[in-house]
Structure formats: C-alpha cells, structure tokens
Amino acid sequence: MSFVPVPADCDFPIQNLPYGVFSSARQARPRIGVAIGDQILDLSAIRHLFTGPVLSQHQDVFNEPTLNTFMGLGQAAWKEARACLQDLLSARQARLRDDPALRERAFTPQAAATMHLPATIGDYTDFYSSRQHASNVGIMFRGKENALMPNWLHLPVGYHGRASSIVVSGTPIRRPLGQMRPDETKPPVFGPCKLLDIELEMAFFVGPGNRFGEPIPISEAHEHIFGMVLMNDWSARDIQKWEYVPLGPFLGKSFGTTISPWVVPMDALLPFAIPNPKQDPKPLPYLRHDQPYTFDINLSVALKGEGMSQPATICRSNFKNMYWTMLQQLTHHSVNGCNLRPGDLLASGTISGSEPDSFGSLLELSWKGTKALDLGNGQSRKFLLDGDEVIITGHCQGDGYRVGFGQCAGKVLPALSPA
Q: Using 50, 70 and 90 to split pLDDT, how confident is the model at 35?
C-alpha cells in the first residue's frame, strides 16, 4: 500500500507506477514523473534519492525532458528505479511521507498537469498481428478462401510508419485531405477523407537498442522492451484503399497516431502474463520462444459525438487476442541487422477478438460500411464524423487493484478547405 490514497478502481496504484513526461503552471519545463493515485511524483525533485549501484551514477537521467536516456540504461536500472519508488511511496517508509517540504516540491496533481509525449520517437513500426483482424479485412476484400496472405502465419507483418505525426492523448486530429477513387469506373478525386476510422492498438517502447548489423536473439528480446502504451492509429480508409498498392500504407495512415501519455513498465505487466497462443505452423526457429509474453489487458473503445451527453462503448477487446508476441515482433524487426534505438515505438496492429463487439476498427464493426453502429439516442455511425471524440482505455485486473494506462483520446476536427 502507498501513503498516497489510491481507490481500488484507480489505474495507478503502487503496483503500477507508469512513467510519463509532464509540465505544470508551477514549472513549465517538461520533466519525468510517475503516476500514483491522482498525483504525479516528479522524479527530477527526488533524483538524489536514487542511490542504488546503477542509478547513483545516472541520477541526471531524471532531470531530462524525455525518457529516452533512462530507457536506454536497460533492465538493471529499470528494476532498481522501480524498487526505489515502491519503497519511497510505501505506507511504511517515512523518507518522503514525513517530509512536507519535499512532498510539496515532488507532487503535482494530475489535474494540474499537461502531459507530453514520453519520449522522442525516432522510428515507428506498425505490425499487423491480430489474426482475427487480418482475417476480417481479408474476407472483406479477398473472400474467405484468401483471407490471410501466404506469409501471415510465418512472420509478423509490419511496415515503417511516420513518427513525426504521433501525438499524445488529448491532441485533436484533423480529418485528412487526399486522393480517393470512390467510383472505380471514374478517375480519382481529391478532397476530405469520407471514411475516417480508428484502430484499437497497443504499442511498446524500445529500451536499449542493438548495433547496426547485429540482430537481437529472441532469448534476449525481453531485455529491450521498456513498457507499453495505448494507441489509436487513425486511418483514412478511402485514401488508404487507393494508394496502398503496391507499396502499402502512406498518407492514409501518416496524418495522425495517438498514444496514451503513461508508459506502463513491463515489470508491472508481468504478473498478468498468460500462455502464448498456439501457432500453427510452428514459426521458424529464430521466432520460437516458450516465455509467456501474452498479456491479459482489458481494452475498451468509446465514442462521444457532438450532442451526446455520455460516450458510448463501441468495442471491448483484449490484448491476449494477439497472434504474434512482442518478443517475436522485436526479434523479427532486427533479424536483418536493422538497428533499433531507445524510444523507438513498435505497435501491435488492430486488436480484434472473435466476437463482433470486440472488433477493433469501424471498418470491421460496420463491416465495410454495410451496417450502422447504434450509439443510442438516435445516433449511429459507420465511420467517424467531425466532432467525434474517441476514447481508448485499458487495464489489467489484479486482486483488489488494477494496473491501467489512463486514456488515449482524440477529437476529430473538420478538414481544411482543399486548395
């Protein structure tokens, strides 16, 4: 238990302690903090208390405006920091609890903070690792017999995304302009996207990277994964459909990707690891691992349109619906010698379950726009309207506590007038 009050339904108990970057009216400089209850513990204010064998030599990492350097220190530093923080925040430890002046400097209410991206994201890769999602999309566009492409069951399919347009929760997303071909008998047209969609995803930050040309073996992949965030990888389906052949996603994806501000460390999630899915055919040897690295994370998507007093839940899914694990994604990413770096972001792809209400995109929920999704009070959607706000939440449920991620939210702004 922490001396900071934490209700049972709060995302941020002492078992969690996610990292983020925040600023406040009291201090405009972005700095690293940890969420506990409804408070943020400013690590720059207590960096002198990290006196373990690793962090005593690296206390200045907590004075930086991003988590990149701390991420790069590796597991020994992460575990040492977590142990120190859990001790300092525990109800039995007086060091911080009984020092009013230090508490005044160190704590900021979350309601008084502005959250920033937790890291400088140098590179972003989006995978396509939910079998149900890949099957659903394949059935829509190729039929049941050819739902999965021949490579899908042999490797984690992914593409390199645009890191510059990743934004923190709460940042509005403007409806993109682009080329579309709604009538296949006529030439393409230019204008605002008509089929704006969401993608329920999660993503992980890379810690220590690898040297150029030297792959990360799967037995060591866990040492390179710092923690996880929620993600909405907004999609312009009509732009994407026209552009993606032959090279894949481009402008239909790069206009905006939203992540939650709090990075939940893997040590907080490991108690919720479950057996990995059975993979048939068996992956090639470099992708095989026995370590449970599938996680029971409850996920929910809500949509609040203009004029709605409350958001309507449109999807309930779970991260355990992933076919390929994060260890396999990381290993496959580096197997050709590609060098990963601290702060790189690797995303899961849309997370869909087997039931229709667990599908992680409007493309699936409306089944390619053939049916409307009832939001209640006379509101319905096939795809997003201007003014819609999408709110993604997620948590692991423990015995009397939860380890959560906060919110990943964004509101759709109208497109700019075409030139």
A: very high
Copy the structure tokens of residue 53. Answer: 């064998």
What does the alpha-carbon distance between residue 118 and residue 265 come to, in Å, rounded to a whole number?
A: 13
Is position 289 annotated as part of the catalytic site?
no
* Cβ atoms of 415 and 190 closer than 8 Å: no
End-to-end CA distance of the chain: 58
The answer to whether 43 and 137 have CB atoms below 8 angstroms apart is no
Paired tokens of 204: 């992980």
Which DSSP helix (H) or strand (E) runs through 187?
A: none
d(CA 311, CA 314) in angstroms, rounded, equals 9
Is residue 30 pLDDT above 90, yes or no? yes
pTM of this structure: 0.97
Instruction: Tell me 46's DSSP state.
Output: S
Q: How far is CA 410 from CA 167, 193, 196, 362, in A?
A: 9, 17, 13, 16
- Could you write out the DSSP letters of every residue in 240-305? HHHH-TTT--STTTTT-EEE-S-BEEHHHHGGGEEPPPP-SSPPPGGG---S--EE--EEEEEEE-
Residues 6 or more apart from 1 whose CB is under 8 A from it?
14, 90, 91
pLDDT at position 303 is 98
Burial class (CB in 10 A: 0-12, 13-18, 19+), 167: middle
CB 252 within 8 A of CB 237: yes
Burial environment of residue 194 by CB neighbours within 10 A (0 to 12, 13 to 18, 19 or more): middle
Residue 418 confidence (pLDDT)? 81
CA 249 to chain centre: 19
Catalytic residue from among 133, 224, 289, 395: 133
